[in-house]
């Protein structure tokens, strides 16, 4: 998970506090720190803000009430003939007009709702009755049971719903009950597959395994643990299936195989009106409209619930204008002109702030961050997940997606150019050629459907005028440079054919293809095995000196910083809390957070010393603590720490620290 | 790739076996004595009942009948209609009618791609923008309006009020290509609307998903233009789920044609089936259902294979 998604939940906090409590695991501290309303209550709040969904729900509730209490609601009995002139239009007596026998259309519509809604519910209920056990069993048992059940579902799903329904009705005899049964059968596979997929996913979660290990019976696990987790997507599917069920019922009735034509149903009313559609389109229009509105309402409600539960696509945010591939910059007027990077700096980031618009309002994820990188230097940026280090590095490249993010203050001077003023076209010339980036997840950072060769050749030809053949030669050189054996053959490979370490080497080759002067490596080894980590880092170091480029190494691992970097910036909750040379900072940390990180790092702490962890978690950017952002977790906190924000102030020997007790604390460094 | 195709084809065998069993067993649903019911109930003459019993093979044991039926079905022999035993065989009827039903379904699919893909791309590229909100609203409506309602209003508007298209009937392509096109246009629009909305939604979701991916970020980070990022890198990935939904839509369209054929009085498979329902004409209904299922299974096969073509991860594993 990247820091971007971490804006809502820090990585190490279980996403769903409810689940953790349920499993009885001791995550108490984490839960206390992020005590949030239950996910369902939160979803309900979100749903309430979704106006179309609320309107749809209101419409459906009204319709259901009207259907249930139809005899009380309607002005006439639905089959009383001669209420008005045949085909007469709207009147006080007959608000929707009258049909060919002078029956009141309004009354028939309300009675039709009874048929439509009840058969819709029956279809979904019957289908669930079969699908829930099938899906749970297949997902939970796996293996042969799963295979057999899923083949059966495949077979059922290959019957076209209406055709099977017609056949069943033909053989079983016409009638709504038979039609309902037939449609339900065809709905089963969709539900069963969904439940199975969900069960499979949940089954692999740790708390289920814990539960199993503790000896809970499988049946109980299915009922108590898995079913609640399957519920969310199922609610959505049910709502959408209701629409489909209504459609199928109406279709059958319209063909004359559902409700007997004398009974009022929307389908049979459309069928009856067909004969007069040219002279009296109203006769078809009214029941059609009832059908369309009801299906629409179920669909809108389903979409709304899905969004509220966070299962759908994130909604685009209209408040931030943006385009793909370039972070929007909205700096306040009258900001001082940034001074160009000093002679000994290649990159100078000053007062950089990045804001994300979330459901709960704007969250400043990066807050007035400043640092410099000298040519050829290796700078480390360190911090926990959620500290803003990844967003900072993405912001330098203007790669924070807008929306939801945007840069709200500061400057990023690369030599004498402020990157925050560039257009997309200008920025493209910088990316890859001057500054390149390696990301933390080699598994997903390469395009899965193109070969390594294509991806390398395309990249090389972006900045260098070369023929495809020349670019291929260059690609082989690059793969050799990152120590990939048999590079010629690897060009034809797809990313999934390579190991994680190999993929990270390919990404490195991609980033270095045009010999950039600055490489930003964002946790390049986090996803890799320990032995591979060391290889990649060694490679990075040798390439750095060979190509004489500056490197920003973003990591949560102080051990890596100690081995590779000369200077380090420590970030916490979106701010720089301390900065200095590696040697000095490790020996004499001036911020309690740094001390805590050092004590938690195995390579740095003494062998016989107990590793400690920092209690608590990185705060939610929406609810930052007042005063010093670290004070709730700080062992040295005094009341003043909470009173007002703490400035980053210079300390001795080009150090900076953000702590008001910097002078009276003597913190423990690495020895 | 060949191994993939072979594996997929092999996996069809159990599915086809299950569905053919289900189709065969449909007749067991008939309440009471099937031969009597099918022959017309209590009013039927004993001769007619005996005739029906023989035609359906109900005088023989179930298992024997099943083996025979399966053997014939494999050779595409469904026998003759119960109501018109001396007329054309069921297969001869199907040969005429399948192309009709397919013409409409394929035309509907064509329309849905023509409208759905660009619409989904436009809205997926700018989620939340005005065009996206308009398209989401339009697709919601498209998913809620039943095809037969669309069909009825298309007929009044474009066939009765204005004489642009025929209100009913079907013209063979071989007879008059222009008239053929005119005769399938309205039915295709009527069933294509829902499919277009579904395709647009899927394409939108796929594009949004691809644009948020890490590989798109990698492409942008080396300086690739947004145009190329979208048109080359994101689109090929987005095509994978889109192809699946197209297959699903074609299945849905074929099933939906049954109703539309009624609305437009088109002599396709649906009309054939509906005509056979009232008796019921057992062999015809079984043959039509079986044909629909086999076509669906074949569509899924094609989708699976094209999936493998688009997605290299499937090809190898």
Descriptive report:
The complex is a heterodimer of chains A (671) and B (317). Chain A has 671 residues and is an alpha/beta fold. Chain A has 24 helices and twelve strands. In chain A, the strands form two sheets. In chain A, strands 6-7-8-3-9-10-12-11 form an eight-stranded mixed beta sheet, sandwiched between helices. A four-stranded antiparallel beta sheet of chain A has the order 2-1-4-5. In chain A, strand 1 and strand 2 (361-373) form a beta hairpin. In chain A, helix 6 packs antiparallel against helix 7 (143-157), helix 11 (218-255) runs parallel beside helix 12 (266-274) and helix 17 packs across helix 18 (468-481). The two termini of chain A are 33 Å apart. The model of chain A is unreliable at 1-36 (pLDDT under 50). By secondary structure, chain B is mainly α. Helix content of chain B is 77%, strand content 0%. Chain B has 13 helices and no strands. In chain B, helix 5 (90-125) crosses helix 8 (177-211), helix 6 (130-144) crosses helix 8 (177-211) and helix 10 (226-263) runs antiparallel to helix 12. Chain B starts with a helix and ends with a helix.
